[in-house]
Design goal:
about 100 residues; alpha/beta
Length: about 100
């Protein structure tokens, strides 16, 4: 599960994650560019991404992933939950 956020234009950010990106900018772009990785579902939250991330129980896959600007002590914004490695769930936080 990946927890991301956007301070503005959250729908555009989600749309970007759901489409094929040619220019990689964020950590998640590189993951989504890998063969066999797809978004299974997007959940929207009003709380900030770090608050939501810290409520998700799972194992950290890559330290620092998506959390390079984190000031809340998140080890990673990418966590493994369950046994299915083929699908990626998004928790997206931010203002519409």
């Amino acid at each position: 599960m990946y927890t991301g956020g956007a301070r503005r234009a959250i729908e555009a950010r989600i749309e970007r994650h759901l489409s094929k990106v040619e220019k990689f900018h964020w950590h998640i772009d590189y993951l989504l560019g890998a063969d066999g990785v797809c978004v299974r579902k997007v959940f929207r939250h009003a709380e900030d991404e770090c608050t939501v991330n810290q409520q998700v129980h799972g194992s950290v896959l890559t330290k620092g992933f998506g959390a390079s600007d984190c000031r809340s002590g998140c080890v990673s914004h990418l966590k493994k939950i369950g046994a299915d490695d083929r699908h990626l769930f998004f928790l997206h936080s931010g203002l519409k």
